[in-house]
Automatic annotation (TrEMBL):
<keyword id="KW-1133">Transmembrane helix</keyword>
<protein>
    <submittedName>
        <fullName>Type IV pilus assembly protein PilE</fullName>
    </submittedName>
</protein>
<dbReference type="InterPro" id="IPR012902">
    <property type="entry name" value="N_methyl_site"/>
</dbReference>
<feature type="transmembrane region" description="Helical">
    <location>
        <begin position="12"/>
        <end position="35"/>
    </location>
</feature>
<keyword id="KW-0472">Membrane</keyword>
<keyword id="KW-0812">Transmembrane</keyword>
<dbReference type="InterPro" id="IPR045584">
    <property type="entry name" value="Pilin-like"/>
</dbReference>
<dbReference type="InterPro" id="IPR031982">
    <property type="entry name" value="PilE-like"/>
</dbReference>
<dbReference type="Pfam" id="PF07963">
    <property type="entry name" value="N_methyl"/>
</dbReference>
<dbReference type="Pfam" id="PF16732">
    <property type="entry name" value="ComP_DUS"/>
</dbReference>
Length: 153
């Protein structure tokens, strides 16, 4: 006579992960995060650089329109900015746009990094009335390769 085996006597195998498998998965995720975070931060800084360059070009366009209408570039008598408030910054707030030097026949615009963007390798962007583009980092003007790299991407 066969007696049925009770459920309490059966050994049930529970499917799951071991601690070692979980640690290996966590290590893989940590390595992927460590590799991707600097690239992400670099991508974000490049995106903010685009805003700075766009802001400089918009301010230069405004100055050219004023010069076309008045015959000269606007010059500040009392040191106040002649740029409209909308052109003194960028949407992300990471750069401040200023008219660094202005005469009736010339100007130099500067995009100064603000906040977290201050650590960016490109530093300050410059643009003058001839369209000459430049970068200044820690008071040192960038060479041609650095200017091309910062303005190009």
């Amino acid at each position: 006579m066969n007696t049925p085996v009770s459920r309490t006597c059966r050994q049930v195998r529970v499917a799951g992960f071991t601690l070692i498998e979980m640690l290996i998965a966590a290590a893989i995720v940590a390595v992927m995060f460590a590799i991707s975070l600097p690239r992400y931060q670099e991508h974000v800084q490049r995106a903010h650089r685009v805003e700075a360059r766009t802001g400089l070009l918009q301010a230069a366009h405004w100055l050219e329109r004023v010069a076309t209408a008045q015959g000269t570039y606007p010059v500040s008598e009392d040191g106040a900015s002649v740029l409209p408030a909308a052109l003194r910054g960028v949407p992300g707030g990471r750069y401040a746009i200023a008219l660094e030097a202005s005469t009736p026949s010339a100007y130099t615009l500067v995009a100064e990094p603000q906040g977290a963007q201050s650590a960016d390798a490109c530093g300050r962007f410059t643009l003058d009335q001839t369209g000459a583009r430049g970068v200044v980092h820690a008071g040192v003007r960038g060479d041609t390769d650095q200017v091309a790299a910062c303005w190009g991407r």
